[in-house]
């Protein structure tokens, strides 16, 4: 294929959602965009062979939905028109933190309750519709091609997986690696004489199991999903959500090696062990549509390309190939979308992006806030190894107060979910008015619990001054507390 270029070309390694998002923004700046992947991509509607997480819940956070809509105007409605249910992340999801249910309040956070194959199908269809985007399917990616001084990437070496084909070189003005956690860019760079890419790993020992059901009775009462979140005392959690095809999707998980079983009876028993009974009760009126499928995720991983002193021109990395978050927090696809917008920001001059500047902005504006948020939560589990700095401990204390306040106040829930959905920056929850609201609800809740736990007067005893029964009629202690 070398020698047939007539214009500028960008090559995207990997047809994942991150690769599709990247191709979308590159199509505005390059004459040709080519996506290379080992899988068959076009026309595929089910889980792909080389996307093992395609059989499990993949959440798109509210900020990810906004970014997706910005990249593909009208796509959200197209997905809903294809039978995907929706709701509000704070108003129509039944959240349980520390075993306690949060108050629900609509916060303008659109949930797209699509299965991974459904979401991928729509994003791929819209990307493929761009006239300058094409796919090189069922091809293995063998390595990078560079200038003689190895200072610039000029293409990639690929080979067909269908048999009999020889290796070929695809020339490119820009190569974007979107091949996911298994990215070989760190290995290729070392082979080219570049330093080792700094990495940060944290062992979380996550394992989860997914199964789909048809419900014979509706347990949701108007909600979209029921989500009991794992916490140190019960390090097991689940997401039980309506999804496309009139199905319900369950992904239940455990941390630090405590993993759900894949036999049906064992899975039901596991679900019964969750902190709340809602999902187990619902499964009494549900018919399994497939077999339970397991997935293991031992460590989170962050490749700190922003810390490298040298990096070749003509090469960028995006999505899980840069950072793989704890998937429980559903940040991966959203960060991939925001990463594509970061690439776009570095294409606006028409010149090739400068990798060092791109990686700096990606780390500071996209990865850091999400990474710090999930790191704070991961380190609440004593068995997770990592540095618990005074800042981390303070953040954990405040987060627990927020969660406690959210059990009483829907406005706290809405603000919390705007942060968790990456719509608001973490600093939004540090505003004095919000901190005051959190503390007020926590104090009022504590006072209420204390009053409710007081023993009542002895039979026949006369109420004395200051006792609850001495309060004016119609002003029970519970009413006084809730008035706060």
From TrEMBL:
The keyword Oxidoreductase applies. SUPFAM superfamilies: FAD/NAD(P)-binding domain (SSF51905). Residues 463-475 have a biased composition (Low complexity). The keyword Oxidoreductase applies. Keywords: Monooxygenase, Oxidoreductase. Residues 8-337 form the FAD-binding domain. InterPro entries: FAD-bd (IPR002938), FAD/NAD-bd_sf (IPR036188). One of its GO terms (molecular function) is monooxygenase activity. Residues 450-484 are annotated as: Disordered. It comes from the Bacteria. This is FAD-dependent monooxygenase.
């Amino acid at each position: 294929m070398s020698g047939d270029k007539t214009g500028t070309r960008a090559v995207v390694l990997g047809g994942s959602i991150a690769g599709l998002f990247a191709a979308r923004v590159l199509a505005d700046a390059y004459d040709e965009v080519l996506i290379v992947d080992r899988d068959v991509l076009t026309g595929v509607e089910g889980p792909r062979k080389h996307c093992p997480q395609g059989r499990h819940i993949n959440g798109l956070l509210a900020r990810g939905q906004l970014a997706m809509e910005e990249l593909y105007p009208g796509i959200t409605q197209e997905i809903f028109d294809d039978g995907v249910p929706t709701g509000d992340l704070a108003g129509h999801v039944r959240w349980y933190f520390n075993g306690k249910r949060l108050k629900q309040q609509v916060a303008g956070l659109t949930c797209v309750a699509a299965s991974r194959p459904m979401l991928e199908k729509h994003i791929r269809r819209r990307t493929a519709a761009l006239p300058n985007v094409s796919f090189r399917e069922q091809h293995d990616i063998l390595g990078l091609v560079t200038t003689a001084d190895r200072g610039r990437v000029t293409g990639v070496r690929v080979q067909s997986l269908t048999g009999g084909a020889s290796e070929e070189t695809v020339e490119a003005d820009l190569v974007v690696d979107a091949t996911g956690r298994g990215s070989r860019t760190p290995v290729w760079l070392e082979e080219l004489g570049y330093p080792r890419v700094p990495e940060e790993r944290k062992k979380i020992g996550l394992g989860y199991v997914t199964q789909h059901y048809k419900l014979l009775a509706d347990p949701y009462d108007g909600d979209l999903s029921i989500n009991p979140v794992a916490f140190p005392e019960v390090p097991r959690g689940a997401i039980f959500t309506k999804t496309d095809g009139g199905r319900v999707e369950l992904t239940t998980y455990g941390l630090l090696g405590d993993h759900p079983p894949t036999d049906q009876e064992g899975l039901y028993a596991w679900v019964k062990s969750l902190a709340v009974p809602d999902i187990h009760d619902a499964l009494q009126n549900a018919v399994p549509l497939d077999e339970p499928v397991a997935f293991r995720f031992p460590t989170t991983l962050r490749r700190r390309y922003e810390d490298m002193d040298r990096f070749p021109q003509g090469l960028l990395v995006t999505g899980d190939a840069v950072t793989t978050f704890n998937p429980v927090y559903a940040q991966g696809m959203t960060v991939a979308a925001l990463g594509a917008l970061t690439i776009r920001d570095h294409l606006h001059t028409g010149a090739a992006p400068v990798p060092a500047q791109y990686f700096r902005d990606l780390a500071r504006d996209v990865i850091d806030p999400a990474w710090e948020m999930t790191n704070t939560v991961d380190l609440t589990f004593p068995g997770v190894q990592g540095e618990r700095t005074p800042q981390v401990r303070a953040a954990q204390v405040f987060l627990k107060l927020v969660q406690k306040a959210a059990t009483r106040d829907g406005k706290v829930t809405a603000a919390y979910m705007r942060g968790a959905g990456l719509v608001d920056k973490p600093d939004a929850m540090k505003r004095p008015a919000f901190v005051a609201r959190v503390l007020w609800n926590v104090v009022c809740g504590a006072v209420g619990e204390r009053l409710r736990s007081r023993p009542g007067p002895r039979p026949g005893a006369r109420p004395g001054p200051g006792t609850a029964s001495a309060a004016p009629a119609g002003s029970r202690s519970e009413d006084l507390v809730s008035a706060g």
